[in-house]
Task: inverse folding
């Protein structure tokens, strides 16, 4: 074949080739697909938050009880005084007007005024939030690390004695109600049973009258039993998800190739198997991280921990509608935001997601 017969080939080899749309196209399409993916997830989160806002208003109005009568403290009051209370908190307005007022204020960050505390709901939430983050945040770090560590070990020794023991223990503890386990720990280690003396406080966050390092140690002393309760109940879920995901990866060809190259089993697990099996675990971690803000209502109530969970239980007993609504919205919003963050991080862990 001569050059004259193939002018197009000669011209194509003379000089540098220009980068056409075929070179840039895949990257541009990938960016566009990811932006659509992000927009879809953010839009879904916004719709979910709006649904929670609506649900929180109507759901808790089904709770029996009259908050106005609670505010009187059981005293005999006239019908005029009750009417004044209802007018003060807007309970005399039609339901649709209460709803529009609630939504309008909530969108500006105003969650209303607590009936029992006579203080802004957002202030009560801000006051209790650090206590909840201390308790559930400490437990979250411990049970996540413990679950991932034991889950990977159990999967790598699938069917062995340690795997059967760890899996059985995790399933048993995961099925135990947290409040029941908390009460049991209080009876055994706080009150004392037989030869076991009472080693820990029965509840609360501090004994009072202590400062500096002594105060830190006192809070840590009160923290032990509720943290042990949460870790014992929650670590099993992370263990089982990690173990299952790693077992799915262990039959993959790339692990066989890594072993054939002479890599040690520990190296194969740490560098290849575990990173590829962590996607389901990342989902669970973010879900649990959202629940960390909500706290665990039953555990905080059992141990009289002054956090958001205990505040929610206290508000339900009235019912303190603005406080219950505000806490419910914060709890749900934390889970929705963390789930959305997990969805946005997925493409960084697995490029196939979001395309």
Result:
């Amino acid at each position: 074949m001569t050059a004259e017969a193939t002018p197009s080939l000669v011209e194509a080899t003379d000089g540098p080739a220009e980068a056409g749309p075929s070179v840039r196209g895949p990257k541009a399409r990938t960016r566009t697909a990811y932006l659509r993916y992000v927009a879809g997830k953010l839009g879904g989160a916004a719709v979910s938050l709006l649904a929670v806002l609506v649900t929180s208003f109507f759901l808790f109005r089904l709770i029996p009880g009259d908050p106005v009568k609670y505010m009187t403290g059981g005293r005999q009051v006239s019908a005029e005084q009750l009417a004044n209370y209802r007018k003060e908190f807007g309970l005399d307005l039609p339901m649709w007007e209460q709803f529009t007022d609630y939504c309008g204020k909530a969108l500006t960050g105003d969650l209303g005024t607590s009936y029992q505390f006579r203080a802004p709901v957002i202030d009560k939430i801000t006051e209790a939030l650090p206590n909840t983050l201390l308790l559930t945040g400490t437990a979250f770090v411990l049970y996540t690390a413990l679950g991932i560590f034991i889950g990977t070990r159990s999967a790598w020794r699938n069917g062995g004695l340690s795997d059967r023991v760890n899996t059985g223990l995790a399933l048993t503890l995961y099925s135990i109600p947290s409040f029941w386990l908390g009460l049991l720990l209080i009876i055994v280690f706080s009150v004392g049973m037989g030869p076991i003396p009472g080693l820990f406080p029965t509840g609360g966050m501090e004994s009072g009258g202590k400062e500096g390092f002594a105060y830190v140690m006192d809070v840590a002393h009160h923290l032990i039993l509720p943290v042990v309760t949460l870790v014992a109940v929650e670590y099993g879920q992370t263990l089982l998800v990690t173990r299952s995901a790693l077992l799915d990866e262990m039959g993959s060809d790339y692990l066989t190739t890594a072993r054939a190259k002479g890599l040690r089993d520990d190296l194969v697990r740490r560098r290849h198997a575990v990173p590829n099996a962590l996607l389901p675990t990342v989902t669970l971690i973010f879900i649990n991280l959202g629940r960390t803000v909500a706290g665990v209502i039953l555990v905080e109530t059992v141990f009289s921990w002054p956090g958001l969970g205990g505040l929610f239980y206290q508000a339900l007993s009235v019912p303190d509608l603005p406080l219950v609504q505000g806490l419910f919205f914060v709890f749900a919003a934390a889970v929705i935001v963390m789930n959305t963050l997990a969805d946005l991080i997925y493409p960084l862990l697995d490029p196939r997601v979001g395309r």
In short: The CA atoms of residues 176 and 233 lie 7 Å apart.
